[in-house]
Specification:
The chain has 212 residues and is an alpha/beta fold. Helix 2 crosses helix 4 and helix 7 packs across helix 8.
Length: 212
């Protein structure tokens, strides 16, 4: 069977500063571009057959710099809609909700068109993506690469492993990293997680940064 490769986009100003970023379409920082370009050798060793990416510019630019070709946009790969928490940090949210935790509590409604999403709603999107790529993963044409965002990819990982959406909390994911989900005895299993570029001078995102 083919493996599933998850690529989190490179650093943006908001991801660097820990601000929740879903629909706000920020570019990569200079460091984020270096992170993305440094993933080329990591991905070049893989037999990639299919590439899907979030429609956000930060994901598409990461795919481009990482040398991925024939990239198809998949709207369901967009980041968790943070609603009223867009553009603010966890610390700011906890000033009003001290025990708030995204994977348990979801978000509050935001501006028109951005009501926010519950963990279950994000999980439903992840399930749609997994259903779409299931025939590719079952074949032997090559790996499937998804280029997207931290929280969404964490939920998708949980669903691929047969866990509830909230279990995405267990999988920290830094900017500019590649993760691999393969199989063991025909069951999905983590093969590698949160792997930064081989060039250690670039490094991954700051520890604990899982937004956008």
């Amino acid at each position: 069977m083919s493996e599933l490769l998850l690529v989190r986009h490179g650093e943006t100003e908001w991801s660097r500063d820990g601000l929740h970023t879903s629909w706000t379409d920020l570019p990569l920082t200079a460091r984020g571009e270096r992170q993305a370009a440094a993933l080329r050798p990591l991905l070049a060793e893989r037999p990639v057959a299919h590439v899907l990416a979030s429609p956000r510019a930060r994901a598409l630019r990461t795919a481009e710099l990482a040398g991925l070709r024939d990239v198809r946009i998949e709207p369901d790969l967009r980041e968790w809609d943070y609603g009223g928490y867009e553009g603010i940090t966890t610390a700011e949210i906890r000033k009003e909700r001290p025990d708030w935790f995204l994977f348990d509590d979801g978000v509050v409604p935001g501006p028109d068109g951005h009501p926010g999403e519950t963990p279950a709603e994000v999980g439903a999107r992840a399930d749609r993506v997994l259903a779409r790529i299931a025939p590719w993963l079952a074949g032997d044409d090559g790996d499937v690469v998804l280029v997207a965002h931290a929280h969404f990819l964490r939920v998708l990982t949980a669903r691929r492993l047969g866990l509830p959406p909230a279990a995405g909390a267990l999988f920290r994911l830094d900017t500019g990293t590649v993760s691999r989900i393969g199989t063991e005895h025909d069951r999905p299993a983590l093969v590698a997680w949160n792997t930064p570029a081989p060039d250690g001078r670039v490094g991954a995102g700051r520890p604990g940064n899982g937004t956008g």
